[in-house]
What does this fold into?
Amino acid sequence: MLIVQKYGGTSVGGLDRIENVANRVAKAKFKGNDVVVVVSAMSGETNKLIEYAHHFSKNPSKREMDILLSSGERVTASLLAIALQEMGIGAVAMTGRQAGIQTNSIHTYARIESINTEAMKTEISKGNIIIIAGFQGINKEGSVTTLGRGGSDLSAVAIAGALEADACEIYSDVDGVYTTDPRIEPKAKKLDFISYEEMLELSSLGAKVLQSRSVELAKKMGVKIVAKSSFNDNEGTTIAEENEVMEEVLVSGIALDKNQARVSLREVSDRPGVAAEVFTKLAEAQINVDMIIQNASTDGTTNLGFTVPQSELESARELISAFSHDIGSVDFDENICKVSVVGVGMRSHSGIASSAFSAMAEASINIEMISTSEIKVSMIVDEKFGELAVRVLHEAYQLDR
Amino acid sequence: MLIVQKYGGTSVGGLDRIENVANRVAKAKFKGNDVVVVVSAMSGETNKLIEYAHHFSKNPSKREMDILLSSGERVTASLLAIALQEMGIGAVAMTGRQAGIQTNSIHTYARIESINTEAMKTEISKGNIIIIAGFQGINKEGSVTTLGRGGSDLSAVAIAGALEADACEIYSDVDGVYTTDPRIEPKAKKLDFISYEEMLELSSLGAKVLQSRSVELAKKMGVKIVAKSSFNDNEGTTIAEENEVMEEVLVSGIALDKNQARVSLREVSDRPGVAAEVFTKLAEAQINVDMIIQNASTDGTTNLGFTVPQSELESARELISAFSHDIGSVDFDENICKVSVVGVGMRSHSGIASSAFSAMAEASINIEMISTSEIKVSMIVDEKFGELAVRVLHEAYQLDR
It folds into this structure.
């Protein structure tokens, strides 16, 4: 088997932990596998470098940031290779460039365009373990690029796809994907299996096991991911295409997102296109609008509500003031949160949404906004009821069984 | 003018110091110069990374060490570029690879083979300041290489040579090159000018302003070096070819090297080739033999004395034990030091050596070994007389005038 393993910042967050990772990698090799490892920077390193840069500039040049930030992963990769060599195991460290990772030129948020696997395949054929500095590549001009936060996940998935690896194991300090955040609901259970689609909904809603771009890429390339902890030998969660096994599962998990704010526009004049104009401006300002609700009112005006990330509320506020002549009143509310029920079973089973609403009503939690997709029901509720809503829904779908 | 500036680890050893360097670089640019900057890692960084590697292995793989160690200079280069950009000055950071530095494949001690100046020339023509991560390049296979301790000096000189720069300024925490170590002789004076040859003798003898390989390279490429402090605006010392101005100077400086040990082999059997065999073995073990003295004795045996760096004495001791049947007795002495008088004037002026010996005799310092070259007289004396010898010779050649 050819296995790609990725170890995150916490897993390599110190010399003893790198030693621990070396032992895990060696074990996989001794079982007869070919192993390619992708590593993050030691935890805290990237933030330290960003702080350094911010000492000089609030908005440092992205090209230079990429040279700066790519250094952390190189340190971990070379140290891990040295640790393995000391165990008598053939290992070779590679930078993103040396591993053949070609990206576009969008510095600090580059996209992988292609991977030249030649150098990697040569080392694999020699029986060597390859340790690759994650999160980085080069563009066509040869400049160093990085892939954005959590980019090492992306490196691992892309490499697994390019090498047609049998598995892509993503190691962190978490055992896998849970039915909900165990800090909110202690009865939360680890999932053995989750589909790409569900994982995408859960990760964009705040379950931080996997960067969502890497889940998208895994889906696209058909790479099976196993999310595991590097601190124990628990089974982990497999993320892959839906299959027969999943038919019985209706709901996989409950996610809570506290980073939302609601904007309510009341008495919006019925002049055609006002709503469209508002959302166009928001999009131009790169403000992420999530849920939208529009109600026609009786007096010839409409009410328009939507949510944005809290960090973007200030920009939204400024932008909307330009529309004051078309809008009766505007109301901003940061004290809300979004609770989502996610499950591929919703596609084929009706009634999932209604049982969510019933459970919320029974617990006397008022639902302020609702949006649904094929595999998700999201509800905006008062922030103070967020954790309660999660527990109520977790119970309603019997996710602790 | 096109100026190459190199800032060492102490000069960039903190965020405030990098800010200070940015101001100095900006000043050179505002004077109308094109400026290319080469930087070292922040002081302490390289040692920290070496310690990390030694946590895993006493003898870490050199290929991986190069990926590890090259990261420190990248951090400084990108931070300095960001600092300059924040001042509104066009600046671009480059790794060794991006600057076109091609080396051979001797990892951790690579030699620069060629520099492709295309990328640098493009940026210069745009009016940009280039900030280059020193100490590093890549080999023909694209692997990262480093140039050994002090390698950033080498990067700077090679780049200055390749770009045909008008000057190569090497900044450290020292004002320039002194007639001797001011901690030993407070009357030591800074030299305005010193020849490559003299500098080579002084640096290999312990004056740590410039790495000696970079002086050799500067001589070969005809690059004029100015050694300066980044903490003040003093003039510094120019290192270049001897010229007419220098005719009057007989002696430029006095160097003290306390890192020497003496090996004395007594009653070496007169069998031909014993001495040759000893030195061949020492060379094979990469032990640097410095001074050698052989005396024929009356009883058909010879006495053989030589010096090695203290750090290599243990290896030398082991090696020599293999010759016990050919040698009467062996004596090791770490309590010695080497005092050297350096000056190109010796070439044309006789009597320099003899006045050294007279001065030492007057001060009752016993000279145990002597070696001379065209521009140097070195003497081995008891370690406890080292500083005194320096002061006596400094006075004898009136270097404080």
About this structure: The mean pLDDT of chain A is 91.
